[in-house]
Amino acid sequence: MTGYQQGLGEPLAAVRHTPVTRLLRWGFEQFCNAVFRVYCPLRVAGREQLPEPPFILCSNHSSHADSPALMYASGLGFDHFAMIAAHDYFFESRASVKYLPQLLLNLIPAERRAGRDRILRLLRCCQQYMVDRPRCLILYPEGTRGENADIGSIRRGVGLLAVQLALPVVPAYIHGTHQSLPKGRWWPRSAPVYVGFGAPILPPPLPQRGAVRAYATVSMALEQSLRALREQYMQAVR
Question: What is the CATH topology of the domain spanning 3-237?
């Protein structure tokens, strides 16, 4: 076990594969597939724009159903993805219901507060997750769940990850999950769901100086793309 793995402790177990977690995650994937085929029929647009893994998948965020919707819409299978998740929400809470995502999904813990050591630990954990085969990361660049499918402010952390890991960023717009599984609800209600993928955003090479500007460039491009995807959807349903 490497030093940064020791530093992460138990949270890193969420991205390990044991016979029990493999079985649970397979069952969860089959359940979600059935939900999005029948109960909450999911329509996908732009799937052909997805590059070959690895990449970072970023979308608006208003529901715990967003990650399953993105993974189902990609057509890649759930084991191709890890979700970058808030450490304090998923790993420090005593609520058993918040421990369930650790069993059902690949979670990589991230601290909400910035700091060099925290950022380095997150980067190393992401690299470790993708070391055996090309996988993808799901990151919600707004930083928290919203109340609806609008696009909030995009944080520059997504630009940092994209540039430091040299991974393209794929924008996605989700609509309908906020109606099916809003905050405070733990069982979905039947509602149609839409996921639209945009063109990948290629990060610039990591500069020797001015890295913050490179991070901001990626984050701004992502925000513009997300807003354009939302507008395309809204025009299509008018």
Answer: Glycerol-3-phosphate (1)-acyltransferase (3.40.1130)
